[in-house]
Write a structure and sequence with these properties.
Length: 301
């Protein structure tokens, strides 16, 4: 019996890469899965492919339960339909894994407003629309006196935590998702909902374009960047066992798991009165010398 037995989980962008690995792992742990995917290309362009159906077939052949959904996570009404698919098909909803996204990599000086809006929309708004409707459902359950033990699992990125050259829109969206997770965790605990965030390092269609051969690294027979490496963490976070864990951002590379510390207060100096502009420079240099060195922006090493 798996750790997600009887749980119902929505996974967005579950047709390929990380999302596919999550859906298969969740089903393997006993979850009933809504496999959401539009079947678009890496830049969000339409295709005739239906990868969600393929994943559902894999799950069913292995003896699991799953249903495909092709709604757009960035559309408000579509977000409601994704949640409704879970409830109508399986009678309940226990977790949402927000994974859908694409990239349109550009140096900041070349990024167009259309590219910026498209990336921010699919990541940030996509996380909002599905989770917001799920939270409406769980809040209503809690107010009706029914026990809620629900999970929101968001997807940031190392690019969202440190920044990444050539990915200003993507990095901004992923940083926003990390901050959104902290707010959700603080606001939604009263309803029995936890919120956590992943910053995975894995081989997908998006990362292969940006990082190429690095994503094929192995340690002996262990494929360090295989998307399946992140899937057990998702299954655990979606399970009842993670009820006491919320507001965390997890990084995972191969077999190494870590918690991100995020922004925190650093060195400070209080003059006790208003500063003159001209005197700030020396004090700021002193503070910068005192602070621990930050992790470098990806692409600057």
């Amino acid at each position: 019996m798996g750790i997600c037995e009887g749980r119902v989980v929505i996974v967005t962008g579950a047709g390929r890469g990380l999302g596919r690995a999550y859906a298969l792992a969740l089903a393997g742990e006993g979850a009933k899965v809504v496999v959401n995917d539009l079947g678009v290309g890496t830049h969000g362009d339409a295709t005739a492919e239906k990868p969600a159906d393929e994943v559902v077939n894999e799950i069913r052949k292995a003896g699991g339960e799953a249903v495909a959904n092709g709604d757009d996570v960035t559309d408000w009404e579509a977000g409601a339909r994704i949640v409704k698919t879970a409830i109508d098909t399986f009678g309940r909803l226990d977790a949402v894994v927000n994974n859908a996204g694409f990239v349109r990599d550009r140096m900041f000086v070349s990024c167009t407003p259309e590219e910026w809006d498209a990336v921010i929309r699919v990541h940030l708004r996509g996380h909002f629309c599905v989770s917001r409707h799920a939270v409406d459902h769980w809040r209503a359950e809690a107010k009706a006196g029914r026990a809620v033990d629900a999970r929101i699992i968001n997807t940031s990125s190392p690019a969202g935590l440190q920044g990444s050259i050539g990915q200003s829109a993507y990095s901004s969206a992923k940083a926003g998702i990390a901050a959104l997770t902290l707010v959700q965790a603080a606001e939604l605990a009263r309803y029995g909902i936890t919120a956590n965030c992943l910053a995975p390092n894995a081989r997908t269609r998006m990362t292969e374009q940006a990082f190429g051969e690095m994503m094929n690294r192995k340690q002996g027979d262990f494929d360090v960047f295989a998307p399946e490496n992140t899937a057990p963490l998702v299954a655990w976070l979606a399970s009842e066992r993670s009820a006491d864990v919320t507001g965390q951002v997890f990084e995972l590379i191969g077999g190494k798991i870590s918690l991100s510390l995020g922004w925190n207060d650093g060195p400070e100096f209080d003059k006790g009165g208003r500063w003159e502009a001209a005197e700030l420079g020396d004090r700021i240099i002193d503070l910068m010398r005192e602070r621990p060195p930050a992790k470098p922006v990806y692409g600057t090493q």
